[in-house]
Amino acid sequence: MKPTNKPKKAKSQPTTPLKLRDHVKAYVHARDISKGHAGNLGFALDHFAFFLKREPTIDDLQSDTVNSWLIFMLENGSKNGKLARESVANYRRCLLTIWRDLYDLELMEVAPRRIRPVKVVSESPKAWSNAELRRVLAEADKFHGCYHPSRVSKSHFWRAFVLTGYDSGLRLGDLLALETEHVKGKNRFEVRQHKTGQTILVKLRPETVEAIKETYPKNGICDRRRVFRDALSRRWVLVGFRQIIERAGLSTKHGTTKMLRRSGATAVEAINPGASSRHLGHLSVGVAAKHYLDKGLVDKAKPLVPSLIDGTCDSEDDDVQDAAPVATTAQMQDMLTKMLERVAAVPSQPVVAEVTTPANELAPFTLPLLEEFLATEVAKMSRSYMKATKSYLRQTFEALEMWRTSDFSGQRFKAYLAELVSKEGRTERTAKWFRYPLLRFLKWLAKRDDDTGRIAAECAGRLAIARASSPRPRNGGKRGAA
Q1: What φ, ψ does residue 357 adopt, rounded to 5°?
Q2: What distances in angstroms separate CA 186 from CA 56, 183, 189, 202, 339, one per listed residue?
Q3: Backbone φ and ψ of 202, nearest 5°
Q4: What's the pLDDT tens digit per position in 176-215?
Q5: Would you say 183 and 189 are in contact if contact means Cβ atoms under 8 Å apart?
Q6: Which burial class, exposed, middle or buried, applies to 369 when counting CB atoms under 10 A from its CB (0-12, 13-18, 19+)?
Q7: CB of 226 within 8 A of CB of 215?
Q8: CA 335 to chain centre
Q9: Among candidates 434, 433, 457, 436, which has minimal Cα distance to 445?
Q10: Distance (Å, rounded) from C-alpha 223 to C-alpha 393?
Q11: pLDDT tens-digit profile of 225-275?
Q12: What is the value of pTM for the model shown?
């Protein structure tokens, strides 16, 4: 046979599937994520490897395999024992994050589907009362000696740490990063939150500022750049704070530094409802109520209804015995008085444009009243709805000049809506959206016992009459009807 010069075919080398741990390293390297989140991704792979008894690969990301892993963790736990449902839900979330990233990079053909959910029953947040916080302060004052090499007194350090954490509502990382220049002779300063990147205004009481100054050397010159972090490391801050909680006789289950943040937010919410989210620096209103506010302490001043059992009430006009404490009621009355004084002292300014107001005409609709309305109703609105309400009211005031005269009528407003439809190309449905914020604002103003409230009540009545007199569709407003 003649020899052939054809090249030999190379043997195909078996391709090894991609290891998930190698992909996680590339995922962390390409993103600006915290060390905690990167660690959680690694922990999830550790538990997945314990279930598979080998290193997980990309071929293991299948619905049946992942669901079996979740059932295994819920029933048997892991190598370190039983796992809480919160931990299982967190590991599930981390593994699905890796799976979705592989799918986005087209390394997986199928996105995660039909993955077993892990239901988590969240407990009600717990906070410390004022009496419990005083016990914590008392135990903090019992420390002796100082920390080396910073030479900061232990008792002064812990007193300043507890008071600052309670007043500021900062997270532990932001609290340890607090710089000396921030609190140098000031009780109001801005701090950029590490978690969200948003700036928050921090207010400290005078006794808290004095407690921080006590941590400085006797000459009053502090060479520490950071108030707490340069005096004690994060690890020993957690260890020392847990010692204080144990000595105070409080539950160590909720004995982390987050309790200071929760307690401060709960105290603010009890005094000024709706202000806890701003105190904590949250962008969403519902986060504070879900994870920070102790409902038992917030609703402590809530009165009971009169008893229906015979013989317990002398008359129908008797006061309830278990009503709010006198101190809390007095504080609320004092706050209300100060607020009304500030509102009365604010000069009337037009909302959008400068309008010359005759002496015999009133100017009830002003920018401070609009800002007060939005601040009062912010707890009842979403962020997007509040911005839309503010925009609608400003446009309406500018078009109708409501702050100038009291001759507002429902027909005038209907003509304004028709103008919106014709000139700005809006539909009748979107044009009517301007009515709801206006009616809500007028009803809120009508509660005032002055000329502004009287004019607002008249305008709200005229607007309601115009709404009732407008023709309704015969089909009841149902969509799709002829």
Answers
A1: -100, 120
A2: 54, 5, 7, 10, 25
A3: -105, 135
A4: 999 888 787 678 888 888 888 888 889 899 899 899 888 8
A5: yes
A6: buried
A7: no
A8: 24
A9: 457
A10: 52
A11: 888 988 889 999 999 999 999 998 888 777 788 999 999 999 998 888 888
A12: 0.55
Give the other-Cβ count within 10 Å of 115's Cβ: 14
Cβ contacts of 421 within 8 Å, gap of 6 or more:
427, 428, 431
pLDDT of residue 321: 42
Both tokens of 302, joined, read 């809530």
Query: Could you write out the DSSP letters of every residue in 282-335?
Result: -SSSHHHHHHT--HHHHGGGPPPPPP-STTS-SSTTPPPTT---HHHHHHHHHH
- Banded pLDDT at 399 (limits 50, 70, 90): low
Q: Which fold has domain 20-104?
A: DNA polymerase; domain 1 (1.10.150)
pLDDT at 97: 94
- Is 448's pLDDT higher than 90? no
- Residue 179 DSSP SS3: strand
In angstroms and rounded to an integer, the radius of gyration of the C-alpha atoms of the chain is 32
Collapsed DSSP state (helix, strand, coil) of residue 226: strand
> Three-state SS for 202?
strand
Domain limits of the chain?
20-104, 130-291, 344-469
- The verdict on domain 130-291 having CATH code 3.40.50.300 is no
Residue with tokens 């002779």: 185
- Name the residue type at position 381: M
The amino acid sitting at 61 is L
